[in-house]
Amino acid sequence: MSDAPHPAAQACCPPALICPPATAAGSRRRRLWELSPRAHCPVVGVCLSLAALRRLAGKTFGGEVLADDYALHSGAVQDCLQRSPLAEALQRELDRRHALALRRVAALKTTDALRAWWQDAQQGDDLAGALWATLTHARCDEAFEEQVLHDIHLRQHQLGERQGEERRRLAQLQQAQAALAAELAQLQQRSARAAAEQARKIEQLQGELLSRRAELIGRDTVIASVWDQLRQHEDAGSARDRRAELTEALERQLGRNRVLERELAQARAALEAERRRAATAEEALARAAAVRTAPAQPADEVAPALGERAVLCVGGRVASVPGYRRLVERLGGRFLHYDGGEHDHPGLLDHTLASADLVICQTGCISHDAYWRVKDHCKRTGKRCVFVDNPSRSGLQRALRSLAQAGEAA
Hints:
Number of strands: 4
Order of helices and strands: HHHHHHHHHEHEHEHEH
Number of helices: 13
Low-confidence stretches: 1-11, 13-24, 294-303
Strand order of the largest sheet: 2-1-3-4
Structural class: mainly alpha
Distance between the termini: 104 Å
Shape: flat
Radius of gyration: 50 Å
Strand content: under 5%
């Protein structure tokens, strides 16, 4: 194999700077500036696009790169001869772009394995990643590097020939496309004329169809009228007898309806009276039960009078809320309730807290948000508040007594 410099490297690098590459040793990957100068030109040209190179150079040098593409490429190749800021930036960018190929070759431990992988990778879609991963591999020696550079040089020639063939093929396809487009335009014009002619014929046939349908309807109407007159004449005799029978049956049914209406009105009146008596009895029983249960309460469970103060009960079981209301109102207070966030809107809690004088928070039946909002409001405003763990009527009485004692102490 010849040791002559690679043609791509000769185009971008001065001959005086071309030197033999260092022999790969150990397992550390080779850096860009450690590669043979012959490799810099194909690496920069194949593994990185000109747009990416221009963007990376501008970021490295802190400004817009005004050089043309060739000058930009040549300058980048020159900077790769030693470790420079641009060479380091190119190393990082190439590692990032071709990380997948680098992971694939990381497990290869011999030059033969790397050579076999390179032969397979040339047939794949990621030629740039394969080139970068192969040249920077620790087992890429000088002979194998020269082979890789020869392969990529021939590959570039093949790609150039293929691009020329593709351009010719594209020109042929564009000509064919133009011819097909012209033919399509002619077909569309003929199709449009045929469609317009077809629409005109359809419109004409629809008009004729409507005319025939109107004639048919008129004929059917005349026939139906004649048949009706014929049936009327045939049924005139029997219709009179049938009409009399129906009139008599109708009068009997009307009489039965009047009787049923009177009975229904009487039943409704009796039901309404029974409902009123039941409601009166329930009210009397409720008053009697209230009178019986009120004196039975122990003296230590009776809460003090509230004196028209508003008592807000936060949480509690839905079925117990009427009992809470009666207890607070019997002690002279105004009862307010918030269900703890289960159904009521959260924004209602702040308004209700502002309207309350005393707060009883049943912590076992409210949400965490409602609990912290109640605690924060009472702490900020100095409003008296009692927290009850288990919701019950006795617990509410003890809470009211605690509130009253706190008020007396204050």
